[in-house]
Amino acid sequence: EAARLFDGLTRKSQDLANLSLGSVEPGHEEEHRRRLALLSDEVEQAERSLAAASREFRRDLDGQTRTPADLQKALPANAVLVDFVEYKHFTPPTEKVKLRRWEPHLAAFLVRREKPLEQVELGPVAPIERAIQSWRRKFVPLATDELPDLSVPRTADDDQDPGRRLRELIWDKLQSRLTGAPVVLISPDRATARFPWPAMPGKEPGTYLVEETAVAVVPIPRLLAELGHDKPAGAGASAAKDSAPEQSLLLVGDVNYDANPGRASAGTIAQSAPRGTRAGQLLHWPPLDGTRTEMATIADSFEQQFPDGRLDKLRGDRATKAALIGKISDHRYVHLATHGFFAPKELKSALGVAMGAENRGAGGATSLRDVAGYPPGLLSGVVLAGANRPAAEGNDDGILTALEVSQLDLRRVDLATLSACETGLGESAGGEGVLGLQRALQIAGAKSVVATLWRISDDASRALMSDFYDNLWNRKMTKLEALRQAQLKMLRTGANRGLAGVSRGLKFANDQPPDSNHRLPPYYWAPFVLSGDWQ
Q: Which stretches of 125-224 are assigned E, i.e. beta strand?
C-alpha cells in the first residue's frame, strides 16, 4: 500500500512539474491556474496519505526537527559548522530618528562538538550582497544578471577589492573561533549561497582559503545526524567503502536536447507552445560537445580502478528523464554532465513571496490559490533529452526538477556529481537555505553532491573532474580532500598545462588569464562545491 501511494505521489509530482513549466495559450490562463492549484492539492494529499501509511516516511518527516545538541553530537571533533541565517533586524526609534527600521541582517551560528553554541552578528546584508555580486562579476564571465541593488546607497568600502571586502565582512569576524578546525562546514543562506568559499582570499596576498583549510557545504544541517560521523574522521571512511559489495557508476552526458523522448497522453494546454518554450519563455540549450570526452575520461578511470564494477551510460537520445529516473537509484556514483535548469525570473518562488517578494507571477498573473509563487522545487532541475521541444502535460519534458528528484529513493547513491551549468544555485527561503538540486538530492538520500556555481569551459571541467575521481578512487582520499587537491592542482599548475600545450591543453578565457605567477583565477577551479557527507 505504501509503495502504491509513493508511486502515486511521484506521478502527481511529475504532472505538476510538467504543467508548471508548460506554456499557456492565450485565454487559458485561468484554467491553467486552477489546474496548478488542483495538482498542488493532490500532491499535498498524497504526501499526507503516504505519511499515514508508512512509518518510515513519518520518521523522515519527524526527523526534520533537530536540536542544537543533536547537531553537536553528529559533528566530528575536527569540524565546525557555520550556519548562516538572514533575518530582519529591528532598530528601535531614537531621539534623533523617530522611525522604526527593519533591515536584513546576517548572523552566523557556530556549532562544535564539545563547545557552547555561538552566535556571531555579521551586520547588514546589503554590503555583503554587493561584495558577492562584485566578486562574481570580476571572476565569472558573463554574470550580467547580477546587478547591485541601486536602492541601497553605496559607500567608499564598496570600491575595495570584493574578495578582501568579503573577508573583512565575514571571515575575519569568524576566524578566531575557527582556529584548530581543519574542516569548516558552511550552511549558506540566500546571497551567501552564491559565493564559492574556497575562493575566499587567504591570509597572505594572492592566496586563497582553499590553500589553508577544507570547506564543504551543508545545505541541510539536520541531516548531519544521519551521516554517522561521531567517530574519528580520516581516510578510513573512504577505505571502508571500498569493501562495498558492488562499485557502480552511471554516466549521463552528450545529451541530444532536440530529441523526441516520446509522447504520452499529452494535454491540450501546452501543445501549441513554441519549440523549447518553458513558462512562456523561449529557452534553448546548445549541445555540450565536451561532455563526450568527459564521459570517456571518467569511464576509463572507473574501469581501471574497478575492473569488476558496473558502468552504465545514458547519452544522446537515450539520456531521457524517464531513463534517468529508472537507473539513478541503483548506482553508487552518478555523474551528470549536462546543463542545469533555472526558471526565468518571472516565475517567483512561493517562499520568496512569503518573505515579502513581489506578489506577481509569470505574465503578471497569480497562481497556486492566487499566490504568485511556485513551489521552489519546480524552479530548478537537470536538463535532459528533449528539453528543446515544447513542454506538454503528460510528456517526458526533458527537465528533471528538484521536486521530482527529492521524491526519488537515492539511499544507495554515495556521490552525485552535477558537472553542469549553475547546478549549485537555487531559490532561497530564509533559514531553509538553498532549495536547489543539492538539497533535493540529499533529501532523496544521496550522501554527497558535487555541483557547480557557474558555467565553466569543457576543458577546465574535464581536467578537474579527472583529477577529482583519480584522487577519490585511486588515491583513496576523502571526497572533500579529493576535490580540494584537484582544485589546488588546477590553481597551481593548470596554467603550465595550458601554456605548454601538454596534458589536457586548457584554453583560457580572455578576461580570466593566469596571473604573473602562472596561477589560475577562481573562475577555473572554484565553481565546484561539495555538499553533504564530506568524508
A: 183-187, 214-217
